[in-house]
Amino acid sequence: MMTLKHRLIVLAAGAAFLAATPAIHPASAQQMRNNCDPGDKIDSSTAPQAMKKMEAAGYSQVHDLMKGCDNYWHGQAMKGGQPTRVVLSPAGQVMQEGD
Fold first, then answer.
1. CA–CA separation, 80 and 99 (whole Å)
2. What are phi and psi of 25, to 5 degrees?
3. Helix (H/G/I), strand (E/B), else coil: 49
4. In the chain, what percentage of residues exceed pLDDT 90?
5. Lowest CB count within 10 Å: 1, 73, 77, 97, which one?
């Protein structure tokens, strides 16, 4: 059974460990998640913004959006009753993946 003294030592050690752990900048967290290079510049566009642009271009049921290190948004959608993969470029161009 731990005494109060032992608990305080463990708590202090844990606090010291957390204080020594470097903070991750939000852009760095995005880069790590996507295996991006440290030099990649991730813009601030969001999935809801990408979805809105894809829907405005005639795609429906847009889902599974993922942003690449190159700031292209990739996802799946329906167009003309057919499932398709869709991509949104950083310049705002919406197109079927592979076109």
1. 16
2. -65, 140
3. helix
4. 53
5. 1
3-state SS, 14-32, equals: HHHHHHHCCCCCHHHHHHH
Residue listed under structure tokens 């057919």: 82
* Strands 60-67, 82-88: pairing kind: unpaired
**Local structure of residue 55 (DSSP, 8 states):** H
Q: How many CB atoms lie within 10 A of CB 59?
A: 21
Residues of the chain with pLDDT under 70: 1-2, 8, 10-11, 13-34, 99
Q: Please report, for the chain, the start and end positions of each structural domain, with discontinuous segments joined by +.
A: 1-42, 44-99
DSSP string, 66-99: EE-TTS-EEEEEEETTEEEEEEE-TTS-EEETT-
